[in-house]
Structures are given as C-alpha cells and as structure tokens.
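Exercise 3.2. Students should predict the tertiary structure of the chain below and write it as structure tokens, then compare their answer with the key that follows.

Predict this chain's 3D structure.
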Amino acid sequence: MTNTMEVKARLIGGFILLLLGSWVLHSFLALLVWAVVLAITTWPIYQRLLASNEIHGKVTWGALLLTLLIGALILVPLGYGLSRLLNEAQSLGQILTEAQNVGIPPPVWLETIPMIGNWAKDTWMNALGNPVVANESLHWLGTGSAITYTKDFASQLLHRFFGFLLTLLVLFFVYQHGTGLSQYVLATNRKLFGETGVRYAIHATAAVRATVNGLVLVGLGEGLLLGVGYALAGLSHPAMLGALTGVFAMIPFAAKLIFGACSLVLIAEGHMAAGSSLFVFGVVVILLADNYVRPRLIGGAVKLPFIWTLLGIFGGLENFGLLGLFLGPTLMAVLISIWRDWVADMDKPKTIAWVEDAENGAAQEVITEVEPIPSPSPTEFDDGQ
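Answer key:
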C-alpha cells in the first residue's frame, strides 16, 4: 500500500513539475520545436560530418560548423531580400514625393487591358492622376500610420531575429547531445508504451525528415526552375521572384499566386507570348512537383497517402502556423500507423483461429498417415449392382 502511494505521489509531482516547466517555456516552445525539426532533418548530414577526416569525432566543432552553416543558409537570403526591400522602399518614397507634386500618370499597358482598359485608366486618373487627388489619396502616409507600421515591422523583425538566434543555440546543443537525447526518448517510449511506442517514435522521426525533404527541397526546386523562367521571360529581379516562389512553393499549389501574377503583368504590358509561356511552364512545373515528386518524397517514405499528407499540411498550417507544415503530416503519419496497427490487431484472432485450424488439420492428417489403414473387404466397395 505504501509503495502504491509513493508511486502515485511521484506521478502527481512529476505531472505538476511538467506543467510548471511548460508554463515557464511556453513562449519558447515553438522555437524549441523548430530546433528539434532542424536537428532531425539534418542529423544524417551531421553524422557524415562527424565521420569525415577533418573533424572525425569532434562533436563540438561539428555541431558548431553545421549550426553556423544552417544559420548562413537562412540569414543570407533573408538579408539580401531585406536590403532589396529597403532599396525599393527608398525608390517608392521618391515616387510618392513626386506624385504629391505632379501626380502619378497611368501606365501605358493599363489602357490595353481588354474590356476594362478605359475604365481602369479613368479610375487611375481619378485616384492618382493629378497632384490634388494624389495628395488626398496618399494623405495617410503623412499621418502617424506609416510611422506606426514601420515601428511595428522593425519590432517584429528584431523579435524574429533573436528568436532565430535562440533556435540556433538550441540546435547546437541538440547536435551535441542528440545521441543521448534520442536514447532517453526511446527508453521513455518503451517504458510507457512498450516496443510499439518505440516504433511510433521512429516513424514520427521518418515522417518529419520526409516532410521537410518533400516541402523544402521541392519548393527550392520549383523556385529555381521558375526563377530561370522569370529571367527568360524578361522580368526584373528574377532571383528575388524565384526565391519568393520557392518560399510559397513549400505550401502545395501556393506558388501559382506568384508566377500567375507575373504572367498577368507580362500580358498586361503587351508581352503576350512571354506571359503565356511563363504561365504554361509554371503550371507544368507545379503539377509535376506537387502531384508526382512531392508525394513520393513525403508519402513514399512513411507510406502515407498523399491526400492525408495534403490535409495534414493545410490543417497544420492553419493551427500551428508555418511550423504546422511539418507537424501536420507527422501527426497524420503516426495516426495512420496507429490505425493500421489497430486493424491488424482486429484481424489477429481470425488469423490465429485459421492457423490453429490449419495446424489441427495437419496434425490430423499426420495421425491418419501414421495409423495403419485396414484393408477393405470386397463388400465395402460393392455398389449393390
């Protein structure tokens, strides 16, 4: 009785401590999960790095090198994009200043839009065509709204930057102690759920890695191919457009928003052939990537049907934000695995009964073969004729 009370007290105390720890870290849980996702995805690369001759067995240097490499791969493109955004913002400020003095003339291609060209030009002239109207339309920029938006953007940018640094710091320690952590996790699952829990943990790890490969690698491939298409179509800043397409392409079918808008701009400017070709090329790339390549990378690795992968991506994105892109399919993979095990357990009694019947029948046949068979009398085969 005393031992039972002690076990219950330990369980209650551990649960309370778990709740307190979660409450303390709740603001950083998403960052911790990001670090774990990155570690699981890049763990094979980390193992190859440790096995190389340059840093053979040097865990700290290997963890530091790979962490810095991941940070550079993410921060360098973002830094370049922000610098381009600041340059464009300065150009936009000059355009707005001139607009308040002389107005903004409508673009030449606006009038060429079929059916609504004249209406679009008149609307533009009424809104931005002369200095007085332009001043009224752009008056909000002279209020505190633009300053407030700028401060909010800078605050969010600084917050995200420090959050990313914290993620990299956690990622470094996960690399350092990943082997021990994985053993603790597997031992805990084995203690709580048996060998089935260990298999689910391994399945979840494979699902995370497959999802990241399917989303990120396919997205980068789509961005690279469509970036080449942007350059051939004559669009300005094809690298930036390709990078933006690659980011949107991590969400299935979202890249159509980027290359579709670029195709419409080209068609509106009078480049009908270039715009149409870019749209057709983009549709072919997206269809091949989203319907053939991505399902094989994600679903093929964990035997997850693509429809459940897609639902997991969209559901995770809605409930967990960008992190849900990877958590959603992982949860779906584990649930499908549990469901398959449940179906298999339901069929086990039938299988066992069939096996027992087969064994009994085989045993009976053996007994029949061993027992001596009496010779039939002539009357046993008499058919009465």
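Discussion points: Residues 37 and 208 are 7 Å apart (CA to CA). DSSP finds twelve helices and no strands in the chain.
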